[in-house]
Description:
This protein is an alpha/beta fold. It contains eleven helices and eight strands.
Amino acid sequence: MERVTDGQCIGNAPPRPAARTVCSPEWALNLSPRRRIVPGVENQNGKLRVLIADDHPVMRDGLRAAIDSAADMTVVGEAADGAQSVARFRQLQPDVALLDLQMPEMDGLQAIAAIRAEYPDARLVILTTYPGDARVRQALALGATAYLLKTSTRDDILQAIRSAAIGRRTIVGELASEVASHAVADMLTAKELSALRLVATGHGNKRIAEMLCISEDTVKARLKSIMAKLGASDRTHAVTIAIRRGFLDS
């Protein structure tokens, strides 16, 4: 009788084929079970599948060209506004989505919140023209994996996509320094922001008090707190700093 022992043939028994090892890229192995990609099955050709969301066609075209030129990733879809980005993410379930911060219908921050509500493990990269540590902190708090400026290099953007796919956070260059230089304690509260927005539109303390249904003394206290947190010398200076840091839109 023919026997097979430890893969060795005795007699005329044919050798058993060696087990085939299938190697997956690092990003595929590091995804959570719900998001793990099997090369050649769920993820065509083992490439990272990227969704681009930006309301400027020229920007989308440039990003598509950069991403498709990389050997390990490909663009699977585009969206022209925030609401469409949520719908396209739901439809395509990409490995990484690149989102502009300022988009019609729904902005990037709202899109992050909506996508993460349905897909808690979604890897989302903000790519925007808006600097400021307040915006960065808000985006990260909502679930963004990375925050880059549109002045970033092609290599920085591609590397941020790869890092996002395995859950690594990326804040490039001057943004990282800006975030590091400001403590969480100096973030403005919602009530302080409400008062500061009215200051920015030219309203005085009395009118602000009427509009917010609070006393003038409360308005003064809030503005004092705002100026202390921002290191501002007066109301106008506070507004200028708040715009630069991303608390207020310019």
